[in-house]
Write a structure and sequence with these properties.
Blueprint lengths: L25 E8 L2 E9 L8 E6 L4 E6 L5 E4 L1
Parallel strand pairs: 1-5
Antiparallel strand pairs: 1-2, 2-3, 3-4, 4-5
Length: 78
């Protein structure tokens, strides 16, 4: 992501988490609310690491946003 000069220390600000979801990947979207869960499949529109926001195009063309779970599923709280 950036040039590192010989002898330059690598700091945490120079690193990022690996992508858990990549753009174009099929993902499971789970929407949950008070007393219900609904799920569906969509295609990720951007790369994201665990706990980051990702946009997903659902099968009907609607675009939703959610957070990436540790298992790679997209979580939406309603």
């Amino acid at each position: 992501m950036r040039d590192i000069l010989p002898g330059q220390p690598v700091t945490l600000t120079m690193l990022r988490q690996p992508w858990r979801v990549k753009a174009g990947q099929n993902v499971l979207v789970i929407a949950s609310g008070n007393g219900f869960n609904a799920s569906g499949e969509g295609r990720a529109l951007n790369n994201a690491a665990t706990a980051q926001s990702v946009r997903v195009r659902m099968g009907n063309g609607q675009v939703v946003s959610g957070r990436v779970g540790e298992d790679g599923n997209i979580l939406i709280s309603l």
